[in-house]
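Thread: Modeling a multi-component assembly for a lab meeting

Hi all, long-time lurker, first post. My supervisor asked me to bring a structural picture of a complex we are working on to next week's group meeting, and I have zero experience with this. I have the sequence lines for every component (310 residues in total). Could someone generate the structure of the whole assembly? Inputs are pasted exactly as I received them:
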Amino acid sequence: MKSLAELEEIRKKTLEQISLRKSNDGMRVIVGMATCGIAAGARPVMTAFVEELNKRNMTDVTVTMTGCIGVCRLEPIVEVIDKDGNKTTYVKMTPEKAVRIVAEHIVNGRVCADYTIGEADK
Amino acid sequence: MKDLSLHLMDIVQNSISAKADKVCVFLTADNEADLLTMIITDNGEGIEEHLLKDITSPFTTTRKTRKVGMGISLLMASSNMAGGDLKIYSKRFEGTTLEASFKISHIDRLPLGDIAETMVTLIMSSPDIEFELSVSNKKDCFKFTTMEVKEQLKEVPITQFEVLSWIRDYINSEIKIILGGVLNEILG
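Re: Modeling a multi-component assembly
Sure thing. I ran the full set together rather than chain by chain. Output:
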């Protein structure tokens, strides 16, 4: 049986981590979460990003959601915006692809070109 | 939509777009009446009257990019398919309540799905909105509120990974306790 009191423990632990954290480097992951995105499986994709980023202790990357990006047939769609504001749009996402994008694009700065919107229509 | 938790997520997005800062979700499984109800209430800006009368039509939408809005009509289809009904009450500038019901034993009723995952995803992306989840089986009730969690956490943000995992486990274990007897049927 879980209780709210357990949060106190988590609070103490995370307070130490927060003080160690580096400044926000501004990389952002945005997941399309309108009806089309959700129906196509955007929720597990978003969860995969959050879990993978946490595994690698990359607490300075923010993961957020947005509405319909406008190309429902290519959902789930994820946009990755790097610190210089360059936007990469990934389409037909899966949790497996999310793991690779974290490793290659977010950690190492190499865009996974084969998952991008530009490749989808070729 | 594959399950009710995805519908829930979709409908709550409407509350978020309506600038609600409090969203309450009630899930009630009444085995005697064989009815599962999902109620979502928000304090957003409400729905304009002329839109409200055709709100379940897929061609009713407030967005400007195109002429269709599927969220409510899809939930209505899922509900009607399972011998249930969908109702919406809304008052401009006060808020909106959506009620969807499902016959628990109906073969076409969608499984409940991962409600905890939906709540965690919503909290993570809108940490400033207060969410409430009540799950009841007519005898017992479980209530989760982000306000309580935030009070307990004080300066630690609710979006902290460890906190979110704790919330997920907490909601999951409580839902199992409350819906335990009918769990297999409801989770499908």
